[in-house]
Amino acid sequence: MTLVQMTTAVSTGRTIVSVEGVSKEFAVRGGEPLRVLDNINLQLREGEIVALLGKSGSGKSTLLRTIAGLIPPSDGIVRYRDEPLTGSNPGTAVVFQSFALLPWLTVQENVELGLRARGLDPDVRRRRAERVIDLIGLDGFANAYPKELSGGMRQRVGFARALVLEPEALLMDEPFSALDVLTAENLRTELTSLWGSEDFPTRSICLVTHNIEEAVLLADRVVVLGANPGRIKAELTIGLPRPRDRRSAGFQALVDQIYAELTGADPAVQPEATPLNRPLPPASVGGMAGLVELLAARGGKADLPVVAAELTFEVDDLMPLVDAAALLGLLEVADADVYLTAEGLRWASADIPTSKELFARLALRHAPLVRVICRALRRSRNGRLRDSFFRDLLSGGFSDAEANRQLAIAVDWGRYGELFDHDAVDSELVLGDSLVLGDTKEG
Amino acid sequence: MLPLIRRAAPTRPARTVLADVVVAVGVLVLLWVFVELAAGTTAPITAGETSSAINTDPANLPYYAGRSMLRMFVALVFSTIFAFAVGIAAARSRRAEKLLVPALDILQSVPILGFLSVTVTFFIGLFPGSTLGLEAASVFAIFTSQAWNMAFAVYQALTTQPRELDEAARMMGLTRWQRFVKVDAPSTVIPLTWNALMSLAGGWFFLSASEAITLANKEYTLPGLGSYVLLATREARMDRVLLAIAVMVLVILAVNTLFARPLTAWAERFRVEEAEADQAPRSVVLDLLRRSRLPRRLAQALRPLGEALDRAGRVLGRTSARWPAPRGRRVAGDTVLGVALLAVLVPGTWWALDYVTTTVGWSEVVHASALGLVTFGRVLIVLALASLVWVPLGVWIGMNPRVTRFAQPVVQVLASFPANFLFPFATALLLATHVSLDWGGIALMSLGAQWYILFNVIAGASAIPTDLREAVVDLGLSPAQRWRYLVLPAVLPAYVTGGLTAAGGAWNASIVAEVADYGDTTLHATGLGAYITAATEAGLYPRIFVGVVVMSAFVVALNRLVWRPLQRWAHTRFAL
């Protein structure tokens, strides 16, 4: 781990929020609880912007909500100024991805609402709200309803509503990801300049994102989270001076380094793969085929950030495809580079029947859920089993929604490989007629 | 960077003095009418002697119509309060949810008219010697026809509230009162309004059935449109029945323009979704109110009151300020609740069983169940006939947008028209043609129930995308094939919903439709509805009890075992 600089030198400010040994589990109906966060230790200090970065499923939003005191941790404690939380955190305010504005209140009323909750007089409320509305660039919109505003203006209202509370730490849950590219960039720039200004009413910012460049652009410290369960994989200090230039060599080097961290293999020893401990990444066969063909056209090797940038994808969109293709052995990931394997090259150039057969073979070998379904169907009397049977099996380790998603992915893969099909009328899985099914040995 | 505005702010209408005057006069008239009508509700009771309180002089009709309307609105107010209280409790408390949701589900499928006898007795006891007892019983009958659906509407709106909205409320530390006023109540406005208006339409039926009731050989009547029709029927004055029907139609139209449409148009501002409804409802009355300065002035004048309430609301505490209790304490609480529930349910059931054994005996239950099967047969025939007639017609209406626009309001008025107003004509026809009520009852029951099927089929058919319709024409499918592969599957989910509602309506109607009066003749049919009515008129409480329980069991069982699974299946397989 030579690439990771540990955070010791910087951030000498006093601690505002301290997360100590926090784990979070969600109850799953009739199964083991689902662990979303595992033993997280983290401090938010005065004067710094911290980015929580991770793939989907890394529990980054859950961690933010734990810091905000919106959900209680299952284990460990969250402290605000040394006081353990027992409810929502009085020193923080949250900016939400979906803005979460009240559509029936005007901009002014939305911003005032939190002050009203504190029991301030109407006059004081109005003055403080007006000040923040001006600060955030909403002057002239005070009497508009959120519906009348564009996405960017709405998120400004989200900012104003949080900032008017003058929180010591401002928490932001993917605040720019519901906006178009230009608007998002514009707001990021404004946030940076507000952060540097004298009258910015908050001392620390914690930002959840899945966008590596956004993290490097804004943060003093990037905390990389690994998935299943979410845990801190690495912490990097970003020492670049502000404003930061995306094209500078230092910036690019940091982006590459974080890509490597994100895609890096987990050091933890993997037990035997089962459908529960090795969930299928949410990728369609068509998506994987597109990725593999793209790599084949580049001679079988490419730099991930470059591919992502070319496709104007963000890491969250591309990652499931890469993970799925890697799971099936179509490609390998090393640092921020991806290489096609021999199988991957064959798959890219095969005709349709051959590619189906090859895919079936790989899915049967590497995708635990596909293998389990095929085995069960072959042992059944007539090659048919209710899909609820598998859903029940999966519910031992997944939420209902996730169990459904896993089954849908497996059906997509199984259908393409002609391993099995889903009969929607009878809600049954039906064994397919792939030749692969005949020659694979049990076990 | 310049701020971008996606859509210009809606232009606020110019304020005019004329609008102020019209609104002011309107409010004054409303107040005066209210005072006049309310004065009559506390008159001394006139039970026992047959309907001396009311007579069929047409000059009385406006007053009677006003009294009926007052009952409707009082019931609506109570239903709304109930819906908020119960809906919020069920949505916010895990334990309340476990209790209330199944309870509401059963209550909304129970035939309300069967309970009238019990509630009338109760309320007369509550207000001895005053009409207020009868008024309360009538209002309660309407209340029971709307409150459960409305509570469900609130519950569903709150449980489907975006999670981030809930988190924002807690992040800001809103008090419970502020959360109710600023977050929860507004987000339930649209579903609650639509539900209330549907219930209001259905309520006319229960209103007119509950204005005149014979209990233990005594007749209790309240001044109102329903009792007027009953009396006119008994006097065999068809002209007066017709007149009452005309007044009823006027009342329904007036409620539509002065209340329902402004309310739905106003509710639009509480829409959370980005997209506005295809055709946002509009209302002339609401425009008028918006043109007037008075509502705004009133709001300004009331603002200090709002602030005071806001401050007073602090005593209720903050919304979810603390995390929920640890698991151990929760389990302990659940156990206590469970035990308490059993302590009520077990003796209650024991008492009910004992009551039946010691009074009428179990043979009566068998007898009532057999009658229930007969009524069930009638309900099935009603559904079959209504489907045969209204599915093709509804599809035709729904697939022709121009016809839909014209037909939809007409169907709405027809659906909210209380079918029991038409019973006299149907009964007269039966008498003239010597058809027994055993068969004629089917016609009476379908008078009210059939519209739900038409209503829903129109909605389903008009939702079929034009692309699909063009595609099947393009593929060269024959008309029969189009029905088989597009129309029927596309309409099925809506049809099942309509069928469920129609069946519920038919069961309820059987209580008034299986016994019919005209002049001096009374017709009886064999069935559970007639059984309950007869027991009510004679004041035989054990039989009323058995009849109502058996009918409730029929309806609840059919809903659970047939309609709900059918609905689920239709929605998953054929949802567009």
Automatic annotation (TrEMBL), chain A:
Question: Which PROSITE patterns does the entry mention?
Answer: ABC_TRANSPORTER_1, ABC_TRANSPORTER_2
**UniProt key word Transport:** yes
Question: Which keywords does the record carry?
Answer: ATP-binding, Nucleotide-binding, Transport
Identify the InterPro entries for this entry: AAA+_ATPase, AAA-associated_dom_C, ABC_transporter-like_ATP-bd, ABC_transporter-like_CS, ABC_transporter_ATP-bind, P-loop_NTPase
Q: Which GO terms describe its molecular function?
A: ATP binding; ATP hydrolysis activity
Is Transport there in the keyword field? yes
- Per the database record, which ranges form the ABC transporter domain? 17-252
SMART domains noted in UniProt: AAA
Output the PANTHER family linked to this UniProt entry: ALIPHATIC SULFONATES IMPORT ATP-BINDING PROTEIN SSUB, TAURINE IMPORT ATP-BINDING PROTEIN-RELATED
Name of this chain's protein:
ABC transporter ATP-binding protein
Automatic annotation (TrEMBL), chain B:
Q: GO BP, one example? A: transmembrane transport
Q: Which InterPro entries match?
A: MetI-like, MetI-like_sf
* Keyword Membrane set for record: yes
The record places domain ABC transmembrane type-1 at 65-260, 376-562
Q: Which domain of life is it from?
A: Bacteria
Its placement in the membrane is given as: Multi-pass membrane protein
Record-annotated membrane-spanning stretches? 16-35, 70-91, 103-127, 139-159, 180-207, 241-260, 331-353, 373-398, 410-433, 439-464, 485-507, 544-563
Keyword Methyltransferase annotated: no
| Protein family per UniProt | Belongs to the binding-protein-dependent transport system permease family.
Q: What's the protein here called? A: ABC transporter permease
**Taxonomic source organism:** Longimycelium tulufanense
High-level lineage: Bacteria, Bacillati, Actinomycetota, Actinomycetes, Pseudonocardiales
